[in-house]
Amino acid sequence: MKKLLILATTCAMASAAFAQNAKSAGITDTDVKSWAKNYKQIQNEFSDAGISLDEAGFSRDDIATTSKQDKAKAETILQKYGVAAPNRLNKLAMINQCASLVMAEANIDANTMATLKQMGVDPFAELKQNTNQKDCKVVKANEKAVIAAMNGIDDSAGNAPAASTTAGAAQAGGSPSTNASAINAGNSNGIPKDYAESIVAQMRASDPSMTDEDAEIMAQTMRKQPSYAMQQAQWESQQRAVADEAQKSAQAADAEYKQIEETAVKFRNAIEEFSKSKGDCGLIYKKMDKASAAKYVKKAPQEWETLMIRVDSDVLALIGVKDRKKIDLTFDWEEPKITKTAIGGTGYAASNVETTETSKSIPITITNIEMYEASDKNSTAREYVISTKEGKVIHLWQKWDNEKVTSSVNFNGLKNASSWSWGETGGN
Fold first, then answer.
1. Is 360's pLDDT higher than 60?
2. What DSSP state is assigned to residue 120?
3. Strands (DSSP E) along 259-392, which ranges?
4. pTM of the full predicted structure?
5. Which helix (H) or strand (E) holds 34?
């Protein structure tokens, strides 16, 4: 039944939205109940009597081509199963048409219906054209019995609906075997090639059971609508705007990612270098302040001084000059990742940067802190040497020369000195 629904829907999409304008057959509630209760028997006896049937049962087209003798047989069969006179054949045809409409409306999902409404398409237009509104209300009132009856026929129909779908594909244009792959979840890059393919992709997202053949039929039929050229032009304009938006977001995300990643690299390198550090790199001032090196003397640090060690702008630790204990150098930073968010059903995606808070601590046990200082009327320089039980020795040097301040951090194995900095708190 589902495949019959798709055929009916795709055929209707090529038509304007007609009202239900067929002449009433005067069907009653009893007629519909009798038809539903005896649906299979009626179909079987029509077939045994050689009365032609289409997929929907017996239609008004069949009445025009049926002989007087077959009409008489049909009247007898319908009388037997409770369809009242007059116009039994017209009643049967109308019930069949209305039942097909009821089935179609019951089987289409809400998302697909909403999509077709946006397109300005009534998927049931052709079915409605052949029905009468008053008669269909009577059939609709017996919806449960009608659907149960028709589903019973579908279950026994085997593969017949699938064959009809293939025929519908040829009618819509193109061969399912050669064209279906074009709409198998969209193009290989995920971007629909045209408006029809974008709409069908949305339908497939809400109805995963839609086959490649059904999708191709739907797309081919849409392309033949009189309004399709305008819809395609609007879609292309929208796609260009969305593509531009996607490109701009990608560029912005890339720039943001590089900035955050640059900082993250500093932390990764700093952690690796400090973790591996062993031994003493030697006094900084002997290299950085050679002219005044002879003036440096060892002094006792001021008790209130606290040393602040940083990577980038993150404070790793605050160390009191009198500390002789275990402390953690804690590195806190953000790891970036670019994520993609689909923009509607366009096939394009907006780019965003997400970050993950990351932390790593390296413990050290301070065994001693020494200070070396040199000063004259124009400058003051100082270097702290922090020794640890783990064999790591950290040097912190700083020189104030009038208003110019130069500082440096060093330890054995340090390669990226520019990432590190330090300062004093508590006074000079």
1. yes
2. T
3. 297-299, 306-311, 314-320, 326-342, 349-375, 379-388
4. 0.55
5. helix 29-37
Is it the case that residue 220 has pLDDT exceeding 70? Answer: yes
174 has a pLDDT exceeding 50: no
Of 50, 34, 156, residue with least CA distance to 91? 34
Q: Indicate the SS3 state at residue 106.
A: helix
pLDDT tens track for 303-342: 899 999 999 999 999 999 999 999 999 999 999 999 999 8
Provide the 8-state DSSP code for 178: H
pLDDT of amino acid 387: 98
Q: Is residue 407 a contact partner of residue 422, using CB atoms and an 8 Å limit?
A: yes
Q: What is the pLDDT of residues 231-277, one digit of tens each?
A: 788 888 888 888 999 999 999 999 999 999 999 999 999 999 999 99
Q: What is the largest CA-CA distance in the chain?
A: 129
- Measured distance CA(385)–CA(395) in Å, rounded: 5
